[in-house]
Amino acid sequence: MATQILLAKLYQPARQSNIVERPRLINKLDHGLDRRLTLVSAPAGFGKTTLIREWLDSSDRAGAWLSLDKSDNDVSQFFAYLVACIQQIDESIGADILTALSASQAADQDLLVSLVNNLSQVREEFILVLDDYHVIEAEAVHEAVDFLIDHMPGNMHLVITGRADPPLPLARLRVRGQMNEIRAADLKFTTREAASFLNDFMNLERAAGEIATLESSTEGWIASLHLAALSLQGREDKHDYIAAFSGGHHHLIDYLVDEVLLRQPPRIQSFLLKTSILSRMSASLCDHLLESSTSVKSLARLEKGNLFVIQLDDERQWYRYHHLFADFLQQRLLKQSPHEVPELHRRAAEWLREKGFTQEAVGHAFA
Predict the structure, then answer these.
(1) pTM of this prediction?
(2) Which of 228, 273, 287, 310 has CB atoms 3.0–4.6 Å from 333's, for a disulfide?
(3) Side-chain half-sphere CA neighbours of 294 within 13 A
(4) Residue 246 has what pLDDT?
């Protein structure tokens, strides 16, 4: 039976009216068109989809868009939607693939070859966007995308957006110069972009110093700036609110609970909450804090999953959380498990003292 196509998944998201122009990122995307893949990987709320939508508007290449969801872990459905997506550019291609899928309800190597051959028949240069790729868990789909990247025709450029790095051979693509990367550090608002958003689009008319304070406290995280701007509208105490803005504000808490914390397995939720007391963390420190031996894996998962963890050195030894995320986690820890907090600080102080980090150890000892 043929897959029924939900056309809404093939539509590019509606263009928003309050988009801040980001020429530095558009240029970076343009310069990456000579590579096979552009990976846009960052946590929730960093404007990944909005950026790619804006870029396609400015590009002279045709764009094909597929918004993925969990049902696309069925490799046959994934193929069906991929073909339907390309048919938005050239409706004459892919009929043989859909016929084969309808007959067998399976996707094999022959279909992959047929897909690549069909793509090479598209008459114009085009960009294929796979949005929200982090929902894909099926190994068969990852293998199909890997094959596509390796064999795609020269008139095609693939864009993958998601909240986590996909399990594709990214290191190989990076070494070969075949991948362009846009990450949270690129996507976060600069002070100028924050000023444009807050004053030009949210009509807040804030002074440069206040904007710099908000940009610093949010570390350029677009979603938190937006939530702060919504909270500021209609307030009389705007200056005091900006000075006190933290991960404890209720709009931000709702967002982080729904979009970040509750999407993680219980083990990672516990790791996030308990290690939030640390201003910086290493696997060894986290192991001592948690009385475990799995922190290397947990930190790697956080980094790969873009869970608001920031690498502090090139050796991947030290990390810290985004400041607002840490504030949020600490307040949630105090609410859920206040009795655990003193013991966590004691263990942190113990490890830091033994390693010679006296000032940090004293801070935790007092806490």
Answers:
(1) 0.74
(2) 273
(3) 9
(4) 64
Question: How many Å apart are CA 282 and CA 354, to the nearest integer?
Answer: 14
As a whole number of angstroms, the distance between CA 192 and CA 178 comes to: 31
Nearest to 135 by CA among 172, 157, 112, 160: 160
Q: Which long-range contacts (CB under 8 A, 24 or more apart) does 83-88 make?
A: 83/115, 83/118, 84/5, 84/10, 85/10, 85/128, 86/118, 86/119, 86/122, 86/128, 88/10, 88/64
Token pair of 366, please?
């007092």
CA atoms within 13 A on the CB side of 118: 24
- Contact call for residues 157 and 89 (beta carbons, < 8 A): no
Element (H, E) at 86: helix 75-86
User: Phi first, then psi: what are they for 179, rounded to 5°?
Assistant: -135, 135
Tell me the pLDDT band of 365, cut-offs 50, 70 and 90. very high
Q: For position 245, what pLDDT does the model report?
A: 67
Q: Which residue has the tokens 């840490």?
A: 326
Question: Token pair for residue 133?
Answer: 């790729």
CB-based burial label for 306 (10 Å; 0-12, 13-18, 19+): buried
Indicate whether 242 pLDDT > 90: no
Task: Compute φ and ψ for 320, nearest 5 degrees.
Answer: -145, 160
Residue 59 contacts residue 128 (beta carbons within 8 Å): no
DSSP assignment, residue 198?
A: I
CB 146 within 8 A of CB 37: no
pLDDT grade, residue 1 (50/70/90)? very low
Sheet with 126-131, edge to edge strand ranges: 62-67, 126-131, 156-162, 37-41, 179-183
- For residue 114, what is the enclosing H or E element? helix 109-119
Phi, psi of 174 (to 5 degrees): -65, -45
